[in-house]
Sequence to fold (379 residues):
Amino acid sequence: MQRGTRLVHHRFSMDSGTGGVSIPIHQSVVFAQESLEQPGEYEYTRSGNPTRRALEEAIADLEGGNYGFAFASGMAAITAALSLFSAGDHLLVSQDIYGGTYRALTRVFKRFGLEITFVDTTDLEKVAAQIRPSTKGLYLETPSNPLMKITDLARAAALAREHGLITIADNTFMTPYLQRPLELGIDVVVHSATKYLGGHSDCLAGLAVTRDAGLARELALLQNTLGAVLAPHECWLILRGIKTLKVRLAQQEQTATALATWLAGHPQVKAVYYPGLEGHPGREVHFRQALGAGGVFSFRLATSELARQVINKVRLPIIGSSLGAVESIISLPATMSHGSLPEEFKKRLGITSDLVRLSVGLEDAADLQADLEQALKSP
Ligand SMILES: Cc1ncc(COP(=O)(O)O)c(C=O)c1O
Fold:
């Protein structure tokens, strides 16, 4: 089956017991045991729940993995993945990652003794140069957030394997429909399922997937022990969202390409960061490892004042920190999603107050373009 078909017809898309075309929501915490000698498949929802299992099997299947884990948020999935490491371990991390992940690493995991070096993972020579005897992991986001820089996943995974590092890739922007890091040699994929997989801005969720039985045992222990599991109803919402992922993403990408192309020629726009555009420095690598460019791009305005004006004046995109939803969402990463990064670091990366991020929704492209056009005009 091709990827689009599998989004609708995976092994857990139906209730095998009844033929129901939607998996039942098992809103139960405890599962009665046959006897002390015969415990059933499920005991207690933190350690396992049938609706959660359906989602976990579905995401494992879609990512080309063997083991899936569902968490209460993307950050809970990332926290579990980062908890695979121990005090004294050194981690190499992509420079412009999601601000919440940066905060978790620098404000929490550092306190527990992880050593972290942020590195430009688009340049694997720079990554190799930072590997020390204590380096145990490589954490990647591609396309990166918000500057849409591209890391070569297969080459990064090969380098990491040479040095015995665990690789983790945040696949939120691409989803398994467009990109499958495990098939390129990455060890663990994490998602904010809150975004494209759920797709409707109504459910906070996180996922982690691996092929490796040893890492899966550790992740299962962390999931059950840390306890930030996804509730049955939210699992059902993500399972439902996955069924329409292909059409949403295809439409969002088509509109994003049209808007990014138009903005790239606008006199008030200094740069557009979108791997779908000719001339994007990572375009060739990106299309080697992904089927499409996705529905998010960033653009740099002539001035910070203009960036502020555009965000405040648009009528269709909502101003918000999220992405991947049916409604377009516009944001100023410097103060919103990446507000927790130190000013100096943001300046060095180019996450400044003239940079706007747009997550394209399902509105008509012409309406979005007209809206951006009026927002770009002088007040
Ligand atoms: C790329 C990426 N990873 C992780 C997260 C965190 O996910 P959540 O908000 O579901 O905890 C986000 C949230 O914006 C994100 O954009």
